[in-house]
Amino acid sequence: MPEPITKTVRLFDGAMGTILAADPELNTYLPEELNLLFPAKILAIHRAYVEAGAQYITTNTFSANPIKLNSSRFSLQEVLDAAIELARQAAGASSCKIML
Question: What share of the chain has pLDDT > 90, as a percent?
Answer without folding.
Answer: 80
